[in-house]
Amino acid sequence: MNSVLKKLFEIQQELKVPKNQRNNFGNYNFRNCEDIMEASKPVCKKHNCLLTCSDEVIYVGDRYYIRATATLYDLDSNESISTTAEAREEETKKGMDASQITGASSSYARKYALNGLLQLDDNKDADTTEYQKQNNVTKKTTNQEMITEEQIKLIHVLFGKIEKSENQIFKNFENMVAKQNVYKKFKVRTSKELTKEKAKELIELLKSKLGE
Predict the structure, then answer these.
(1) For the segment 84-106, what is each residue's pLDDT rounded down to a tens digit?
(2) What's the chain's Rg over C-alpha atoms?
(3) Count of other CB atoms within 10 angstroms of residue 170
(4) Are 105 and 87 a contacting pair, CB within 8 Å?
(5) Which residues have C-beta within 8 Å of that of residue 104, sequence separation ≥ 6?
(6) pTM confidence score
(7) Full DSSP string of 77-135
(8) For 35-59, how does the pLDDT look when each residue is reduced to its tens digit (9 = 90+)?
(9) How far apart are CA 150 and CA 181, in angstroms?
(10) What whole-number distance in Å separates Cα of residue 132 and Cα of residue 126?
């Protein structure tokens, strides 16, 4: 088993699969199963390995799933290693017949089985939950006014006052780590990442600490 694991490790380091496919409607680039298989051929040949994909239909609850298996075979040692991924078939999908729905589920499952085996990161692909979360956060932030220069300056001044205060309640503001903890409360790294509304909240918080 050590032989195939070593070769898999080397393949993972060498394999590059650019996202050359384009979805103009969703405005994003992506890679598909065919791209991964094509890019892997010369790398696998170099290490005398064979990469395959297969799938099967399974029934879970009251729904059908496609379970895909990606397997890397070491032709020198006859060892192999596999990963699996599953995709649920939609009952209906506009513009697609039953065979197309199954085919789309198969491609999706195979892609993520290959991702798992070859350590390809698709977190920012548009068909992942991670992408959707990030995209929603971006949209929300874009729709809100960001912090103004005046607010940034005022926050800087208020932090300066707190740092210079001799009041024991402010001692925890005397280093950058403590200041970052305040930003962490607002889920930002610096004041420039605050929205105008959040900046107003932070200013009120700092003023209340100073008794202003």
Answers:
(1) 999 887 766 666 777 788 888 89
(2) 26
(3) 16
(4) yes
(5) 93, 96
(6) 0.56
(7) TTEEEEEEEEEEPPS-BTTB-HHHHHHHHHHHHHHHHHHHHHT---TTSTTSHHHHHHH
(8) 999 999 999 999 999 999 999 999 8
(9) 22
(10) 7
